[in-house]
Each structure stands twice: as structure tokens, then as C-alpha cells.
Amino acid sequence: MADLPPTVALLGGGVIGGGWAARFAICGVDVRLYDPAPDAGEAVHAMLENARRAWRRLTLAPLPAEGTISVASSPEEAVRDAAFVQESAPEREGLKRELLAAASRAAPPDAIFASSTSGLRPSVLQADMTGPERLTVGHPFNPVYLLPLVEVCGGERTAPETVERAAAVYRALGMRPLLVRREIDGFVADRLLEALWREALWLVADDVATADEVDDAIRLGAGLRWACMGPFLTYRIAGGTAGMRHFMAQFGPALQLPWTKLTDVPELTDELLDKVVAQSDAQADGLDVRALERLRDDCLVAIVQALRMHDVGAGAALAAHERALFATAPDGAPAVAADEAPLRLHAAVVAPEWIDYNGHAHESRYLQVFGDTTDALLRHIGLDLAAGGSYFTVETHLSHLGQARAGERLHTTTHVLGHDAKRLHVFHALYRTGDGALLATAEMMLLHVDTRAERASAAPPELLGRIERIERAHAALPRPERAGRAIAIARA
After folding, report:
1. Is residue 195 domain-shared with residue 181, that is, in the same domain?
2. How far apart are CA 12 and CA 99, in angstroms?
3. Chain centre to alpha carbon of residue 211
4. What is the DSSP letter of 59?
5. In this predicted model, what pLDDT tens digit does every residue of 413-448 receive, in sequence order?
6. Inside any domain, residue 488
7. pTM here?
8. Rounded distance, CA 146 to CA 144, Å?
9. Pairing status of strand 343-349 against strand 389-400
């Protein structure tokens, strides 16, 4: 990606700093990390493994070669030659100011500085810096390697181009910068979250609800809506055909009722802390933090993929990032063969979670790889989903010929057997890349569908022209041995 620096410096390697390290590395950027904790490097690499696991599930887009993560012995060493510095130290004003001041004296004069602070104003943080105009807030959300939101807020001395350059870096990471219009404590998202968190603590403190019941109130209700629509659009819909004005007229007076504690915060007594900790431990049900992170990531991946189908929210951010990744496929991506040979469009690695009780990839994973191969073929011929048409698989004949085990590299080839205005007949073959062993084949019939009218339709002429070119080239190839086979038991 053009806007990504080759190397970034990260000051702080906790939950947020480690998430930044994983996000940058996954996107091909080398990371130099400074954190005084002796086990900082180990913790960050554990988070990187979670990020790899999540991104394997999240997208089939060709990611660049992963960046390296190295640990620096000082802030000055970390920022040396770095074009971008992301500070994620603990939320203590004095510590952040001292760290940023020291790093700013050692960094290149044009290096951008961004703070992950969740609420401190950038004007305060930049006060002791050399070149304070280079600092902006870049406040992300956990897990940084999956959630696209990052709040970008400049201070009194921040140059406008600093905000623009930082936002460009975040966009190249597949994130969605929210440019905060005016410097304010807590920015936008955390002010909303803090209001909800205060109410949650009061409900537990007053024994109105347990921690688990409060979580249910969000995850089973409004939280599901918020994944695709924020409160304003949600309430507009609640107003029916009359819209937001009707909603405000009907429910606005309730804002005057004493339903909330507003900014009244419960005293964090030992008794309340013990209650919250005990209920939180019960919720975890014996799972350690890494297991909880993986559960959270799996759920987020499923939600984001569902949202991608509708091009809204985090799904729209993922779709845009995928388009950029496909447009700038890195070296080492599956090579597209000439039309005269079977197309080689997709490659994969057998993930540990693909393995069944027999010790090799479950049969459903073979179909997954062939489905991904079909998607790669549709991209190759230039299918534009935004135009309202797509090919749907209507029939598949899958043959299992060999076993794939964890960690093995796989690749597929595609032979176009035939087509007409609506149908596309293809034959995929799956190979183990190391020794070229044929592991499976899949013969598929695809039907072109008008996705808006939800019925079969002729494909656009330009698409049919590309398919015709490939089919003509493939006509000279030997017909695949297993093409056209039927399942049957031969009788003597």
C-alpha cells in the first residue's frame, strides 16, 4: 500500500500496543517495539498469532508478506528512521508526555506521531515535544487488528497535514478514521461508552442486575443493531414512516425522567469491586484471556463477514480493504497461468482448525477451498458484484483422492469446460504444492443470477467475452479424466 511506511515505531506493547503491532505486521509493515516489560516481545507475538488466526477466517484477499516485529531497548532506538510512531503507553499524562518528548527528539524531523490515548487531549500530550505539530491522536479499539474504527484528533499545535497523513496510514491498514471535529476530552466513542459503563456499574452496584445480565441486555438487543446502525439511524427507524421527528416527539420527553445516573459515578468500594470481579470470573467460566480473545475474534469475524454481504459498517471497511489488497497483490500471490493452461488462481495453507479426528482436513474444507477457487475465477474474469449480477453454484461433484494435513500448502487449477449465456461449467483440481499430489477434484455448474431481481439472467456481454476467450484456449487441453463422472456401483 502506497501510504504505509516500511517501518513503524511502537511505544508500548500492552493490549493496544500489541494490537497495533499485529495490525501493522499483518499488513506487511516492519515494527520496532519499545516496552520496558521484560516479556513484552513474547506477549506481542502471542497477540500476532491470534491476529493471524482471525485474518485467515476473515478474508481470502492476498495479504502482503508479513512484517517483522523486533524489540528495541529504548524509545530512541525504536523511533530511529521511523516515518510513523504510534504511542500506546499506560493512560498517565506524565508518562505519555515524557515518552513522547524523548522520542520526538530522536525521530526523523518529518516523522508522524500518533497517540492511542482514549481521552487525553493532544494539546496536553504535545506540550513538551520537539516538533509538536507532528502529533495527533490515533485512538483505536480493541482488538486493534480487527476493529476498523480509529479516532483521529489534532491538538492546538497540530498541523493539518499531520492529521491527513495519519488518516492515510490508517486507511491503508484497512481502518476507518473518524476525524474528530473539535478537541474534546474522551473524543466521541469513549464519551458514549463511558455513559453506558457508568450505568452498567450502577445496575450491578444497586443489585438491579448482574454483570452477565447487563451483558445480555446489550449483546441480545441493541448491540446487534449497533453492528450495522448507530443510535441515530436506529431511532429514526423506530419513528416509523414519520421518521426521527416523530420518534423525538414520542420518546424525547423520557430524557427528562430520572432513568439514568448521568455523571453520578458509584463509589468503587472494595465491596463493589469484589462483586464485579466475582461476577466477571463467573462469566469467564474458566476460560483464560487468550481463549476469550479467540472466542471474541471468531464472533467478530462472523459478524464482519455478514456485514460485508450488505456493504455496511465494518463490513464495508473490510470490502474496501479487500479491493485494495486485490489491486496490489504482493509478490508470492498465486500466479495466474496463461489461458492456454489450466488457470492457477488460488492457494491456501491447511489451518490446524481444519483437521478432524482422523488427523487430516475435514471433507467440508475441500469444498471450502473449491468455493474459494470459484470466487478467484470470478474475480479473474472481472465479475463486478456492484453491477447486480453474480454466478451461483447450482451443482457440484466432489472427488476426494488424497489427504491434506495441518500446515501443508495447497493450490488449485481451473479448467473451463463450457458456457452459455447463463451457465458456466468448470473443473477444479486441488494439489498439494510440495509434491504436486492430486488431492481432490470438483466439477461445478454455475448459473448467472440477477441479484436484484433474484432470478437467472444472461451474463453481461463483456463477461461472456472473457469466458469465451478462456474456453477456446482450454478446448485444446486434454479433458479431465474425472469430468462427467457419476456416482454408481458397477454391476456385473
Report:
1. no
2. 10
3. 28
4. -
5. 999 999 999 999 999 999 999 899 999 999 999 999
6. no
7. 0.74
8. 5
9. unpaired
